[in-house]
Amino acid sequence: MKTKPMIAAAAAALLAAGAASAAPAPVERIASPGPDGKPGLILKGVIVPAGYETFYLSGQLADPIDPARMATIDDYGDTRTQTLSVLAKIKALLESKGYAMADVVKMQAFLAADPKLGKIDFAGFNAGFRDYFGSPANPNTVARSTFQVANLVQPMFLVEIEVTAVKAPK
């Protein structure tokens, strides 16, 4: 009588061990249609199955073009330049923890008006975004929200980006 519960417990442990070693299902990226019939610039959504490791990055700001100068907007560049700077910083942070830009599934971008334009430069932001997502180097894109904000932490900043990345555990 005592052997039946022991056998059942051992069988349950073996099943659990087998399930734990199985690779999780792939991340499902739900594309949005683009104007040309190809997938759009951003995703409608992403489904991340159980078992993935998640990395949440805080909002990142641009670095100055010349580290010796960092007092005005000219020292940080326009929206496209700042977007590229922020995405390069995000890429380095991801890589430092074993992630890649292709692992990013969600992005929130905050854009302040460029004083030279009197409005946000959404096209400049998207131009920088395209260098990192939906590109030959990284064909993946992300679920994304973009917000126009009155200001960021300092007047020289036009772009702040935070991302969430996921990867299957090793």
Q: Could you walk me through the main structural features you see in this protein, from its secondary elements to its overall organization?
A:
- GO terms for molecular function: deaminase activity.
- InterPro entries: RutC-like_sf, YjgF/YER057c/UK114.
- This is Enamine deaminase RidA, house cleaning of reactive enamine intermediates, YjgF/YER057c/UK114 family.
- It comes from Rhizorhabdus histidinilytica.
- Keywords: Signal.
- The chain has 3 helices and 6 strands.
- The protein has 170 residues and is α+β, with helices and mostly antiparallel strands.
- The protein has a single domain, classed as 2-Layer Sandwich (60s Ribosomal Protein L30, Chain: A).
- Strands 3-6-4-5 form a 4-stranded mixed sheet, covered by helices on one side. Strands 1-2 form a two-stranded antiparallel ribbon.
- The longest helix has 19 residues.
- The two termini are 41 Å apart.
- The model has no long low-confidence stretch (mean pLDDT 89).
CATH architecture label: 2-Layer Sandwich
What is the element string, with H for helices and E for strands?
HEEEHEHEE
Catalogue the unreliable spans: none
Strand content: 25-35%
CATH C-level label? Alpha Beta
Based on secondary structure, the structural category is alpha+beta
- Rounded mean pLDDT is 89
Largest sheet: 4 strands, mixed
Superfamily at the CATH H level?
RutC-like
Residues in helix, %: 25-40%
Largest sheet, order of strands side by side? 3-6-4-5
Number of DSSP helices? 3
Overall 3D form? globular
How far is the first residue's CA from the last residue's CA? 41 Å
CATH topology: 60s Ribosomal Protein L30, Chain: A
Question: Radius of gyration, Cα only, in angstroms?
Answer: 21 Å
| Structure summary, number of beta strands | 6
Number of domains: 1
